[in-house]
Amino acid sequence: MAGSPHEPARTSPLSRRLPRRRLLTAAGAAGVGALVPGCASGGGGGLRFLSLAWQQESVRANKRLVAEWNEAHPRSRVTYVQGSWTSVHDQLLTSFEGGEAPDIIHDASDDLADFAYGGYLADLGDLLPDRLRREIPPHSWRTATFGGRVYGVPFLQEPRMIMANRRLLAAADVRLPTAREPWTWEEFADAAERLTRGATYGVAWPLKEPVSATLNLSLSTGGHLFHRGDDGKVTIRYTARDRVVPNAIRDQVVREKSASRSTLGMSGADTLPGFFGDRYAMVPLGFSYRQQIVQQAPRGFDWVVLPAPAGPGGDQRQGVSPQTLSIAADCRRKEEAMAFVEFLLRPANMVRLARGDWLLPTGTTALADPALRTPRHGWATGTALAGHLRSAPAQSVRGYPEWKDKVATPAFQEFYSGAIDDGELRDRLVSDGNLVLARYQR
Amino acid sequence: MKRAGPGPTDHPTDHPTPGHSRGRAALSRPSAALSRRRAALSRRRAGVPRRGRRRAARAGQYLALLGYLVFLAFPLLWLVSTAFKPPTELATLHPTWLPERPTFDNFRRAFDEQPLLRAAGNSLLTAGSAAAISVLIATPMAYVMARHRSALSRAATGWVVVSQAFPFVLVIIPLFLILKEFRLIDEPAGLVLVYVVWSLPFALWMLAGYVRAVPRELEEAAAVDGAGRLRTLVSVTAPLLAPGIVATALFTFITAWNEFFFALVLLKTPEKQTMPVVLTHFIGTEGVADLGPLAAAALLATLPSLVLFALIQRRITGGLLAGAVKH
């Protein structure tokens, strides 16, 4: 998708090549009309809000908020349109190209770059109300800023946490880390080793998508991998700081055998049966997996949410790509759309959305809400981390998707399974990687 | 549906999938019996080996069919099983075929969360219209292509086959723009049009085969008996083509019923969305899914195809032409 031409396609050459189009339309309409009842033009000119909420509680929260808005603002009604994370990129791309995009768009910051640079999204700079500007901290705004302009309001974010079996941890007499006193990467490795007994592995790394997991966690050890030069061009450097996390994971899998090898190819959800069945004592997973655990764990399963290991000096930074709300460039009533976004993201509403999706809000007032400070289901551990969440290292780098798919994913997969060593990993990430990036930065 | 498999294990080879082992057991038993019978046959008389061989071949065919059936049935049975499981049974290391505490909760939630009935209605309408229209168009076309062989019809057949190779993504944006020009975006009629065009080549190709199977002699006989051209077509050819027409309609219907990408891109209003699009609303990020309701909804989505097949199957198997002509 990255290379798609962003010149707005015009329809006239196509229609010129179809001289009999009226005839065709008539024929089509006659044929189809018999079976398909006529459709009223939908919406009556209201704003369309494409939402990607999918969990039961989250869909309900979104629909209720839309209903509340519509009740209070009968003149600028919003239609709730449900999309899906699996297909949102294609759906948006075709809608933008065809000029049929929804007005308010829910997406994630790492998916926005193409649309932002392509001119499909409205620059929110002049539209943003002060309250939102103040409410959301600068490091969150940075995730949705491309070329100095803001194209989305980041509102929900997901740190990677360690879901752990409390009973196994207690049996192995391992210190439980807290947000204030997290494990170092060494302590984490040590804990994993002590938890490895019989058929139980200390940890399971679900690394079907190894790149974002590795890069985001590497921020804690100061690894940035992508370095922007004074000329604005990005190059890849794999330094000692970038190596800490990948080597820690590989050592667990290959050398200590404290991490299961078979989960390397799994997605997070695939590891849950093994987690519930005592096969893995700890699983690093996104914060929202708590919902799946609550829903699917066998009765009496005692689990706890731990913060991810910290780097030197207790550095708990981590990369995230928050969920965002954007406004289409084609939207005719941008102020109204922004008013709706502002309503949706009022602190109390942001809390409702965060709870519905089991994620962390970005707004500072929302984060302080007692409902998100409860130790129950690890909420407090997560909210304590919010100040350390940064923009994912790669997300504004053009060519990143291609680098990730063609170079980094296979390289990391081979490295974690022990097929290649550290030097070879570096060579591939850097040499092959810079060739890819160079093509995007001419 | 990733997690619907037999469950992740660290030693996959130790745990053959249930369907697999079952299939193997079923396969080994009859083949042993068969070889015994074959040995006995060859001992008795030297004159029968041909019949023995034929039987062996037939048995082999049945075995292959059985293996294929197991292969096809496994995902469906797993889907049924998942649809009736409570959440705590979805993520266990040792999943069972039969839910331990079967529940209808997944169905209730699926209907609560998504407008499944409306989506099914939309799908039925688009797929049904697409099937009816493409058969209406394809039948006369196929007749001409099969009966009047010329350079043009041969070229057309070739083109029809080639056109099957175009990938979706290649056509979607131009198609979107053309439909937009005709104001057919966000209209079920537009989607029906796309489905008709999309399935027409294969429908044509399939029907042409059926037309060729109707012996020309029958039409000639009708003509000798004084039937006119139209009369021959309506009273003789059309009834004989019925199984082919039904099979083609079914094929078109199911293709359209299952189609996701065009429906996703072309229909914008939630009230118009079709079943496959609505099903994706149970899926979240990184392959996480609301598995129970998804399975329940997916099971309901497969029912129309199953029912249609069950009802129409006998018509397809045909045998209508048996003994019509002496060769």
Radius of gyration of chain B, whole Å: 25 Å
Number of domains of chain B: 2
Q: Quote the average pLDDT of chain A.
A: 88
The strand count of chain B comes to: 0
The number of helical segments of chain A is: 19
Rounded Rg of chain A = 24 Å
Globally, the shape of chain B reads: globular
Provide the domain count of chain A. Answer: 2
Side by side, the strands of the main sheet of chain A go 2-1-3-14-6-15
Using DSSP, what is the number of strands of chain A?
Answer: 16
The CATH topology of the largest domain in chain B turns out to be MetI-like fold
The average pLDDT of chain B is 80
- Strand percentage of chain A, roughly? 5-15%
Q: How does the major sheet of chain A shape up?
A: 6 strands, mixed
Helix share, percent of chain B: over 70%
Spell out the CATH superfamily of the largest domain in chain A. Periplasmic binding protein-like II
Helix-strand category of chain A: alpha/beta
The oligomerization state is heterodimer
| CATH structural architecture of the largest domain in chain B | Orthogonal Bundle
Spans of chain A of at least 5 consecutive residues whose pLDDT stays below 50 are: 1-44
N- and C-termini, Cα separation of chain B:
52 Å
